[in-house]
Design brief:
This protein is an alpha/beta fold. It contains ten helices and 16 strands. The strands form three sheets. Strands 3, 5, 6, 7, 8, 15 and 16 form a seven-stranded mixed sheet that branches. Strands 11-10-9-12-13-14 form a six-stranded parallel sheet, sandwiched between helices. The longest helix has 14 residues. The relative contact order is 0.16.
């Protein structure tokens, strides 16, 4: 028997429960994966608490592991595969599991450049960052502002923007300024004077877009002050601003989901080529998912987290 974590109610990790489950044998177009690392994201905690969620709710959206069974005549998202191959998968349902069966098109060969905890955290943040970059319309030589640039999405965005030749001015706390620099961004601090600091960092260039990963009023006000075209102010946090012309994206929205699914292979290839890193701050034993989730939402991880079955 396998084990998997479920939310049994809408109150967050206090209502999570570890259960024994059986991963069904894969049919055509399906793959069974033994999980070596389950990636952790704020969405894992957030989505089971949203209105309309039904319970028990399987937790987790991305994993890394090895194939233990393949359905008949089945290829994975990256092509041919065999039992024993190391793979990663996103967007799956119930990734906080020791073994699970998933649609094969969600599964990709794991780049040898990544450990399992890194691979298990590549695609949710990476695909979110890729969508932000695409919607920004930024091209080589352009300058953009990214709020919360030292976070997981921000770090992936910095790397993807650098590949395109896009310059990023990124807000971060002083203790995380070096993270922004490490991945090619120009760090500026939050707080009073943010707009002036952003202009100074841009060194005379105009901001073609502003990407919001934090959702504070300060971030939104600075974005409005610096970017004239509101359709190029894009948030992953604030759905309440759409009436003002600001664009909100999210994995539960159809257009976002379609884009993020389509870009998975490209991101895996970037990681394979050594162009996309995934900083992992800490791993937790699989049985400690509740503790890990509380650390995720209440602490300052300084990188990605993973559960290790």
């Amino acid at each position: 028997m396998a084990q998997a974590w479920f939310a049994t109610g809408p109150e967050g990790p206090s209502q999570w429960e570890l259960r024994e489950v059986e991963a069904p044998a894969p049919g055509p177009g399906e793959v069974t994966i033994r999980v070596h690392a389950a990636g952790m994201n704020p969405a894992d905690v957030k989505y089971p608490t949203r209105p309309g969620a039904s319970f028990p709710f399987p937790i987790g959206y991305e994993v890394s592991g090895e194939i233990t069974a393949l359905g008949a005549d089945t290829q994975i998202g990256s092509g041919a595969a065999t039992v024993g191959d190391e793979v990663l998968a996103f967007r799956v349902s119930g990734g906080y599991a020791t073994e699970l069966t998933v649609p094969a098109e969600k599964v990709f060969a794991k780049p040898s450049t990544l450990t399992h905890p890194e691979a298990a955290n590549l695609l949710l943040a990476g695909a979110t960052a890729a969508e932000l970059l695409e919607l920004s319309g930024a091209r080589s030589g352009d300058t953009v502002l990214f709020h919360a640039a030292s976070g997981a999405v921000g770090v992936s965005f910095l790397q993807q923007a650098a590949i395109r030749g896009v310059r990023v001015v990124g807000t971060a706390s002083e203790r995380n300024a070096d993270v922004v620099r490490r991945y090619g961004g120009i760090p500026i601090a939050y707080g009073p004077g943010l707009v002036d600091r952003a202009k100074d960092a841009a060194a005379g260039a105009s901001f073609v877009a502003s990407l919001d990963g934090v959702g504070t009023d300060e971030a939104i006000e600075a974005s409005l002050a610096l970017v004239e075209d509101r359709t190029r102010i894009i948030t992953i946090v604030r759905r309440d601003l759409e009436s003002e012309g600001i664009v909100a994206i999210g994995g539960m929205l159809r257009a976002s989901a379609a884009f993020r699914d389509a870009v998975r292979g490209e991101l895996v290839d970037l990681a394979r080529r050594g162009l996309l890193e995934v900083p992992v701050a800490r791993t937790f034993p699989f049985a400690d998912a509740v503790e890990a989730a509380r650390f995720l939402i209440e602490g300052h991880p300084g990188g990605k987290l993973a559960l290790l079955p």
